[in-house]
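[Discussion] Sanity-checking designs against the backbone

I'm trying to build intuition for which residues belong where. Below is a structure token string of 397 positions. I'd appreciate it if someone posts a full sequence so I can compare it with mine line by line.
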């Protein structure tokens, strides 16, 4: 048998059986992972393991309406919608030909969109488990649903940002500079979007007019590609993060930079011989707290920085052993979650800077995660081909 035949056989053994029979799945998991990295896979704090992917799982989203469904996309060119309670498959989003790097539900959980690296985007109607729309763009960088409407936004490597009405497919494009639109976010008012680009610039777009309201470039922009953008709850403040290790706070109405948060460990411009160290760090994720004037910035060197927005100063530095991949704030408290390259999810109290708890179970780095509305569960995806559901609810919070 060829390698392909063997691979297919493996898939049959591995995954079909596991989905059908939960107890066996557990046994299989632990055997499978024993030899991987002893220290890493000593404990599994998860409640549910979803194992239908056959390669790294890149992205996860929860359905906003009920928080009972997850969608995951992976390097195996597959995306699945499944039940968070037991890991049971609802349906497969089939037909992708490249790694599925973006996946998310519409604001009312009616639709789910999946996008692969080559730029094929598909939208499925969840109740019918059926594809209702698809479109091919250039290489896909990011994708996001509108917070109040069946409208999908996506950024591509040619610098364009696309906007479609779903399922009619009416389309608008916003032309950025001739370099990738690396990150983007629709602001809470639903009328504007902020997009970051590889050349260090950031634009705020008027979605209705299709015009650029503000452009940050040169000194106001970043020196290196943007990696992430976020806005606070009312959309008055935007934060941008970059490979240059700076996080900039921007007034969304004026487009002016309010302040710049720099990690003091990084020399502003290292002489050429020492460049490597400065370059190995970057801002990977950031976000605003809803209940206090705080923002969190996660760095590739493992630093979680909590900044006080009212004094524009560093409040806490929470050190991780390895790089932070993503962070998320709890919706109604000053608790921030991080996932990192060491395969753990950690909860931090942003007021004290202390770690509240830590959850392990993956035998490789966590690549993405999502927290449900009442902050009782976290769903993670990993390079170990699995997605896991962790119960994080604590009686005292």
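Best answer:
Here's mine. Compare freely.
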């Amino acid at each position: 048998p060829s390698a392909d035949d063997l691979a297919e056989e493996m898939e049959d053994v591995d995954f079909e059986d596991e989905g059908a029979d939960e107890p066996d799945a557990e046994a299989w998991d632990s055997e499978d992972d024993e030899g991987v990295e002893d220290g890493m896979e000593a404990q599994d704090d998860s409640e549910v393991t979803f194992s239908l992917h056959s390669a790294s799982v890149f992205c996860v989203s929860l359905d906003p309406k009920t928080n009972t469904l997850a969608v995951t996309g992976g390097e195996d060119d597959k995306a699945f919608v499944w039940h968070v309670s037991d890991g049971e498959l609802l349906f497969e989003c089939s037909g992708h030909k490249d790694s599925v790097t973006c996946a998310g539900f519409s604001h009312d959980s009616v639709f789910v969109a999946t996008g692969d690296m080559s730029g094929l985007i598909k939208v499925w109607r969840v109740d019918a488990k059926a594809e209702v729309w698809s479109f091919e763009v250039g290489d896909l960088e990011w994708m996001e649903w509108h917070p109040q409407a069946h409208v999908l936004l996506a950024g591509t490597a040619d610098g364009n940002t696309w906007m479609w009405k779903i399922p009619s497919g009416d389309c608008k494009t916003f032309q950025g500079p001739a370099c990738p639109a690396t990150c983007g976010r629709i602001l809470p008012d639903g009328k504007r979007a902020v997009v970051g680009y590889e050349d260090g610039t950031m634009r705020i777009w008027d979605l209705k007019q299709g015009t650029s309201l503000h452009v940050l470039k040169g000194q106001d922009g970043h020196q290196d590609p943007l990696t992430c953008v976020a806005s606070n709850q009312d959309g008055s403040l935007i934060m941008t993060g970059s490979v240059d290790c700076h996080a900039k706070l921007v007034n969304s109405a004026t487009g002016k930079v309010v302040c710049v948060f720099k990690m003091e460990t990084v020399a502003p411009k290292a002489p050429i011989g020492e460049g490597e160290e400065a370059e190995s760090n970057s801002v990977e994720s950031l976000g605003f707290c809803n209940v206090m004037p705080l923002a969190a910035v996660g760095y590739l060197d493992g630093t979680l920085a909590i900044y006080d927005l009212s004094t524009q100063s560093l409040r806490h530095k929470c050190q991780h052993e390895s790089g932070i991949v993503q962070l998320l704030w709890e919706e109604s408290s000053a608790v921030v979650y991080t996932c990192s390259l060491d395969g753990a999810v950690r909860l931090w109290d942003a007021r004290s800077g202390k770690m509240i708890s830590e959850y392990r179970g993956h035998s490789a780095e966590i690549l993405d995660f999502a927290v449900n509305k009442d902050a009782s569960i976290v769903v993670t995806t990993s390079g170990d081909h699995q997605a896991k559901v962790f119960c994080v609810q604590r009686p005292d919070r």
